[in-house]
Design a protein that fits this description.
- There is one protein chain.
- Helix 3 links the parallel strand 7 and strand 8.
- About 40% of the residues lie in helices and about 15% in strands.
- By secondary structure, it is of the alpha+beta class.
- It folds into three domains: about 1-155 and about 165-205, Endonuclease/exonuclease/phosphatase (Deoxyribonuclease I, Chain A, 4-Layer Sandwich); about 220-350, no CATH class; about 355-390, no CATH class.
- It has helices at about 15-25, 40-50, 120-130, 180-185, 230-235, 245-265, 270-290, 295-325, 335-350, 365-380, 385-390, 405-410, and strands spanning about 1-10, 30-35, 60, 70-75, 80-90, 90-100, 105-110, 140-145, 170-175, 190, 200-205, 355, 360-365.
- Helix 7 packs antiparallel against helix 8 and helix 8 packs parallel to helix 9.
- The radius of gyration is 30 Å and the shape is flat.
């Protein structure tokens, strides 16, 4: 687990702000942090770093002149190896290597200038990096001095921007690409309370995926296009089950679920690996056919391999579309990469990374989060046994006027 921090502190010259940064770095176990608007250079920072608890840490800034830097980056060389690839007044680009795992990560610490015209150079830099950093984990974090949409501000006039009064804005952002979410599926950002600045400290937790849990059953739409699938469903559903109608229904649903689980494991699990394997077999079949182009058996085999590969490609695309829940894009032209990235982003948004208890304690362990949520709702709604005991005290005999007799119950198979 690696922790990255960034904070616009509006100057590190006061002891109060130095103490706030020190406590934040120690509490969140930061290994690298970007300090926006430090109002001192890395040379001056080295003089106070020991007092702030950063003994042995290295630092760099984007200032041309001493004490005129806008971004200062400091890191723990025992945990990370950092190389400054590029810097300008509005950004610092760092190539970071995690020594424990040897994983590489690009981090762009950002401090946007005040006017839209001045920020054009920043956007051009970030857009240029987007086309280069598609396969490399990349994080852009800092004070962008810009909102993403109108929802990111409160107050002021929506109709006359030039006459707006001052209003709160969300200017601090942490943006990551899909490669980062693939490398660290449980990565998430925490925006902490503002203390000595009107900007929030940001902490990025590069956590690995928690231990695997039993996956819920999901019906895959791609099954319905397969030959023989409907016949299999009818065969399972028509199996004789004895008991009352409700028992018959629930039993058949359980049988269907277990049958479809086995069917999935045998025919559609690890769909991307199946596509890659089918592609290798098709390429091999093409090479054999090229060696003996007049062999009718190889011709037929190559056509079968091609059809199988194309069918699996379509199923893979449909699988990721269903999982990503992107409904507006039609299948075709191998949109699998887009759907896969959408799935990664949806998983990241939906995951509960931490939970605050009533006494202010923050839980990060998934088992503790699960147990606390269970305890909370049991206290709120009552446990199963307590609900039953309260229900038994209520006389409901007078609520139902039309009751069936024992003979009628026997005829319906209820007794």
């Amino acid at each position: 687990m690696s922790m990255i921090g960034c904070w616009n502190v509006w100057g590190l010259n006061s002891l109060r702000k130095q103490k706030a940064v020190q406590e934040w770095a120690r509490k969140d176990n930061l290994e690298i942090l970007g300090i926006i608007e430090p109002r001192l250079g890395s040379n001056k920072f080295s003089d106070i770093s020991t007092r702030m608890g950063f003994q042995g840490w290295l630092s760099a800034d984007n200032g041309i002149e001493p004490n005129k830097c806008r971004i200062l980056v400091t890191w723990n060389p025992a945990k990370l190896m950092v190389q400054i690839l590029d810097h300008a007044p509005q950004w610092m680009l760092c190539e970071t290597t995690l020594l424990a795992t040897n994983k590489k990560l690009l981090i762009t610490f950002v401090h946007g200038l005040n006017t839209p015209a001045e920020r054009i150079q920043l956007w051009e830099h970030l857009v240029g990096r987007c086309s280069v950093n598609t396969l490399v984990p990349w994080l852009a974090i800092g004070d962008f001095n810009a909102i993403l949409s109108g929802e990111d501000r409160a107050g002021g006039s929506q109709r006359w921007p030039q006459q707006m009064e001052d209003f709160p804005k969300k200017l601090d952002w942490a943006l990551a690409n899909s490669a980062l979410l693939q490398a660290w599926p449980a990565a998430h950002a925490n925006f902490l309370p503002r203390l000595v600045s009107d900007h929030s400290p940001m902490t990025i937790n590069l956590a690995q995926e928690s231990k695997a849990r039993n996956k819920p059953f999901r019906f895959l739409n791609l099954w319905t296009d397969r030959d023989g699938f409907l016949d299999m469903v009818i065969g399972v559903w028509n199996q004789p089950v004895h008991g009352n109608p409700l028992y018959q229904f629930t039993t058949k649903v359980q049988l269907m679920r277990s049958t479809l689980r086995r069917y999935h494991n045998q025919t559609s699990s690890h769909i991307s690996s199946r596509v890659a394997d089918a592609k290798r077999k098709w390429i091999k079949g093409q090479m054999e056919l090229d060696a003996r182009p007049r062999d009718p058996q190889l011709q037929a085999q190559e056509r079968i391999l091609a059809e199988n590969y194309n069918r699996l490609c379509k199923e893979e695309e449909g699988f990721f579309k269903q999982r990503s829940r992107i409904q507006w894009l039609e299948l075709g032209d191998r949109n699998t990469s887009f759907f896969h990235k959408s799935l990664l982003h949806r998983r990241s948004r939906n995951k509960i990374h931490s939970l605050s208890t009533l006494d202010g304690t923050v839980l990060h362990d998934q088992d503790l989060i699960h147990q606390h949520a269970l305890n909370y709702y049991q206290a709120l709604l009552g446990s199963g046994s307590s609900n039953r005991s309260r229900a038994e005290e209520v006389d409901i005999s007078g609520m139902f006027h039309n009751q069936i007799t024992e003979d009628e119950q026997k005829s319906m198979g209820l007794l």
